[in-house]
Inverse folding.
């Protein structure tokens, strides 16, 4: 009696040998990459970032203001002298203006250069103080935090400056209405308080801007740095 079944296939066994050309079914992949959020700033890093902004931003703003004022005044004075010198009908007042501008530059060019140097030095001190304080507090990307914080603080400071100026004018009108002149003690006290509050508010703008940028640029989790794992802000 002959065997009616092919090799390796017996009647009733339920086993069929797979064909050689059929690939095995792929195994399901249940692996899910680990996603860790970047750790928050430590207390020391947060304090260092805020101090860096509170010190660096006012100094950099002061230095920039000095440089911008001097260069703007020089540009305006040069423009006036250039226009006056090109006039065909030069009056006595025009000639006197040209003479005054020339004499001012010849006699006080050193004061201009010195004030410009002071502005540059103040700006560099603010920039160095910001990076130095951030490095001491182990803030990640201290240079990037400084430049990013400076950009944010400049925009926020512009808004705060105009709002503060309006409040100052309203308060000044009220003080003058009560005192009647600018020689009273109330006028002096009002201006001193406004100056102190302005400095504190300007430093606060820098502190919050630097802290925000330090938070955005904070270091990743060690597993993300060394294993290349994905991460979220």
């Amino acid at each position: 009696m002959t065997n009616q079944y092919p090799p390796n296939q017996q009647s009733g066994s339920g086993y069929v040998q797979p064909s050689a050309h059929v690939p095995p079914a792929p195994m399901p992949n249940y692996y899910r990459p680990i996603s860790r959020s970047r750790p928050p700033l430590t207390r020391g890093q947060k304090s260092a970032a805020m101090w860096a902004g509170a010190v660096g931003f006012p100094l950099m703003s002061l230095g920039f203001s000095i440089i911008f004022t001097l260069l703007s005044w020089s540009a305006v004075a040069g423009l006036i002298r250039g226009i006056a010198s090109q006039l065909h009908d030069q009056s006595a007042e025009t000639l006197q203006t040209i003479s005054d501008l020339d004499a001012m530059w010849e006699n006080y060019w050193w004061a201009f250069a010195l004030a410009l140097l002071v502005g540059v030095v103040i700006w560099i001190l603010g920039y160095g103080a910001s990076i130095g304080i951030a490095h001491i507090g182990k803030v990640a990307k201290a240079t990037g935090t400084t430049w990013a914080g400076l950009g944010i603080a400049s925009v926020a400071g512009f808004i705060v400056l105009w709002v503060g100026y309006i409040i100052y004018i309203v308060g000044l009108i009220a003080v003058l209405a009560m005192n009647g002149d600018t020689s009273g003690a109330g006028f002096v006290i009002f201006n001193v308080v406004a100056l102190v509050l302005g400095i504190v508010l300007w430093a606060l703008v820098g502190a919050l801007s630097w802290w925000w940028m330090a938070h955005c640029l904070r270091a990743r989790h060690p597993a993300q740095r060394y294993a290349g794992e994905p991460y979220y802000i």
Notes: The CA atoms of residues 66 and 180 lie 34 Å apart. Residues 42-217 form one domain. The longest strand covers residues 36-37.
